[in-house]
User: Fold this.
Amino acid sequence: MTQNGTRKNQIEEAIEIAAEAHHGQYRKGTRTPYITHPYAVGLILMEAGCPDAVIIAGILHDTVEDTDLTLDFIRERFGNAVANIVDGCSEDKALRWRARKTERIEALRTASPEVCTVTCADKLHNLRTIISEYDDIGDSVWDRFHGGVDDQAWYYRSILSAVAERKTTLQRNGGHAKVSTDANGATQNPPDDEKKPAPLDTVNRQLFRQFQQAVTYLFEGDHE
Assistant:
């Protein structure tokens, strides 16, 4: 945003672009406009205190996969950081369901913390929606999804496992910047480029825990 606040910022721009891209689409098995999902993902990421690039990518995370919007457009408009996250969250719809889900699950094991964080927010909102609808219509909610409850349980548990493995790896340094010393043991100041706002050091712990709780609640019987 400009200093005087007279122009929309990139989050607002992403909201408008996503709304136009997803126009006419609806949530699976409902008449709920699809745009409610990427908006909710963006809000979840914002509430978790994520950087703007992660929030913007959350709002746009389904555009390349499900609309005519291209990755090149996102890269040109929002930069490499946002485009790389969106790319990491996009499935290859040319593959059959199990194959493309397996590909994404395996990719999460080495994905950036930003991709894993957006994935947690994406799946968390999906699960919240399913839980809400399950409370209203019971097991018939699974008729909307590939393979019913069994395939969906495999899918969400596998994502949780893949992100957990990545999360553990990234937390080995405790999520803090490394402190270096010189030959005399004196603390060295980081180079100027390291003083700039850095990418996420770890998967967002808050979102991971909420995602984990939702998986447990829905697929391990806590809601019964």
